[in-house]
């Protein structure tokens, strides 16, 4: 297989709708729409939002609603979920929600599906109630969704209106080999959460490719890798901006979550060696630096993984700096080298 170059592959955005210190979710949504409009101009393929709950720093809990807001404020970029945590919902309700979105914004809506609760166990219980163990039904619930979306379901007693007969691409999201096997068996595209859980990334995408069974949805395996990117005009500036990302992951490791914090000069006095090591493991697929640094590091990553698409998550405190980071990334992916 011919090694891919960066300008051979698609590039996209994963927006975790991060709330920064001193701002509100309302501010976050306005910034997300502004980023989506710029991403559309800069050639990004899709703009995905993720379902999380009970997290002060993440505003996209009502994921379908935010997807509609972003799609309504843009013109051509694909908008979708990265992902909807399907065990939290009835497949029929998700079919109706995404059928509605796809009816409003034809050929622009993606449905990425995850198995995890997207939150802590207590909150998951509040969401799922008697369906607390619904994750075990994940494969069957995907099949139900596909049935609701099919034109053949028109004579069934339970139908998704709107949704029925619409071409809404379904993606399997995951951070383990279990999700890789499922995506391969179902012949669906696969998006890996390497931006926070990279440990099984290479093993999972190799399993997916080796076991992929062509389907009516997809003839060849297709892999998205989600990574963290903090780009700036100089390496020094990018390294400082990235301290906001490091502080966010320190909160995950320590259990002391905060809104996204301002960048600082150094993390040395902020985290201890254990916390730095734990955060570093989660952030293994993170790219920080200038255009030249990203060009080299991302090409090395592509040489190793041969992914079909890179999806970028960027936790950057200042909105203009965040826009600049995505602009630089787009320039790296479209450079003629």
Short structural description:
The protein has 11 helices and 9 strands. The chain has helices spanning 25-41, 63-72, 91-104, 121-128, 138-149, 177-186, 201-211, 235-254, 273-282, 291-305, 319-334; strands spanning 10-15, 46-49, 78-85, 109-114, 170-174, 190-192, 223-231, 286-289, 309-313. α7 links the parallel β6 and β7 (223-231).
List the topology elements:
Layout: E1 10-15, H1 25-41, E2 46-49, H2 63-72, E3 78-85, H3 91-104, E4 109-114, H4 121-128, H5 138-149, E5 170-174, H6 177-186, E6 190-192, H7 201-211, E7 223-231, H8 235-254, H9 273-282, E8 286-289, H10 291-305, E9 309-313, H11 319-334
Parallel strand pairs: 1-2, 1-9, 2-3, 3-4, 4-5, 5-6, 6-7, 7-8, 7-9
Helix pairs in contact: 1-11, 2-3, 3-5, 6-7, 8-9, 10-11
The residue-averaged pLDDT reads: 94
Give the overall form.
globular
Query: Describe the biggest sheet?
Result: 8 strands, parallel, barrel
- The fold-level CATH name is TIM Barrel
- What amount of the residues lies in strands? 5-15%
Poorly predicted segments:
none
GO molecular function, one term: oxidoreductase activity, acting on paired donors, with incorporation or reduction of molecular oxygen
Domain Luciferase-like: 21-298
Family: To bacterial alkanal monooxygenase alpha and beta chains.
Protein name: Luciferase-like monooxygenase
Structural write-up:
With 337 residues, this protein is an alpha/beta fold. The chain has one domain: Alpha-Beta Barrel (TIM Barrel), CATH 3.20.20. The protein is 42% helix and 15% strand. The protein is built from eleven helices and nine strands. It has an eight-stranded parallel barrel with strand order 1-2-3-4-5-6-7-9, surrounded by eight helices. Helix 3 crosses helix 5. The chain is globular, with a radius of gyration of 19 Å. The mean pLDDT is 94.
